Amino acid sequence: MKFLEADKQDGIGMPEHCPHFGDCGGCKMQEVPYAEQLSHKAALLAALFNAHWPHPIPVEPSPTIWHYRNKVDFSFGRKFYPEPPPKDFDRESVLGFKTKNRWYRPLDVEECRIAPEGMGPLLDGVRRWMLEQGLHAYDTRNKKGFLRALLVREAKRTSERMVVLITADGDFDRSSFVEAVRAVYPAKSIQRGIFRGLADVATAEEVEVLYGPETIEDCLCIRDGDALRPILFRISPFSFFQTNTFGAERLYARIRQWVKDINPDTLYDLYGGMGGIAFACADLVGHIVSVESVASATQDGIYNAKRNGIENVTFFTDTVERYLKNLREGDGFPPDSAVVIDPPRSGLHPKALRHLMQYRPENLLYISCKPQVLAMEMPVLLEAYTLDDLRAVDLFPHTEHVEALAAFTRKD
Hints:
Blueprint: H1 34-49, E1 59-60, E2 71-78, E3 93-99, E4 102-108, H2 119-133, E5 147-154, E6 161-167, H3 174-182, E7 189-194, E8 206-211, E9 216-224, E10 227-235, H4 245-262, E11 266-270, H5 276-281, E12 287-292, H6 295-307, E13 313-317, H7 320-328, E14 337-341, H8 350-359, E15 363-368, H9 371-384, E16 385-393, E17 403-410
Parallel strand pairs: 1-16, 6-7, 11-12, 11-14, 12-13, 14-15
Antiparallel strand pairs: 2-3, 2-5, 3-4, 5-6, 7-8, 9-10, 15-17, 16-17
Helix pairs in contact: 2-3, 7-8
């Protein structure tokens, strides 16, 4: 299989900013040169952790800054009018994002500079199909309408693409949707998901394949000195995969180096997803335990391990707090083990943090996609640990988000 190279883009030749910049809340720093964005993020991190880490915090740049996302979901919504129309008025349907700080105001989007390339023609094609079929966006207030979201995934290394139309219950002309997508966008997999809940989220309770395979495949190429460690991943519609593929390779390379330096016998990968961190480090340790609460992610991990010939990773489908509670009732972490934690934006579950402080594994690496939460948890962690290193990798150009890595060693 041939893998594409990361193409570093510095913005030369790009228009000043996206036509939706300022209205869309996705990119808050698009008008700021990228070098200044990195300096700004480093300054924010320094202020956030100054009480615990009085040293500069390096921010490793993203290899690409335009069209870096491998996943994006657009919402169908009912058009917003400054002057409310009559109650029985049938509002037009739009497709895009939410207006900045106005969750109730849908924004019809023509393009997105951080989404996969080719979104403009795809969005136009789906809008035409929607009008031709006489379909409307689902309205959570009156529970009328059909179309809920359009999910797009792109495998950056293999160029395989997936499009998922998320709808309410009901029938529609499936073949016309497939034709509409294929006419403007080279999707390898086209699917339909059904979501019956009221939340405005891109997920589904049932999935139906309309065209092509159920999954697409991508590769992460993790650098180790002059060598590359390629890892193949099966990606299903709602599986977790780091949003910035090329940035994730740099993040995992940092994690791999940390594991290489401490050289543990056993590595615990908590909040392990479908095994990205575990696979990046599998050849460095005797055994890896990956704990993940989403069953489909665990199944992807088991498949991906076999696909890559990795036999020393054991997967558990469980919450981290429950897994650690059961571990406490046994013998705890074995000697010479290390722990990597990569929790969601909300941070560690309080019970998970409490159990972790009871076990106190010798080495701990915390990966945080919301450093503000890590800063709040830091005083508890420092009761048992010394902070050895703090750095960041930028997975989210043009936003204020950044991925932080904090390495700890247990105090004697």
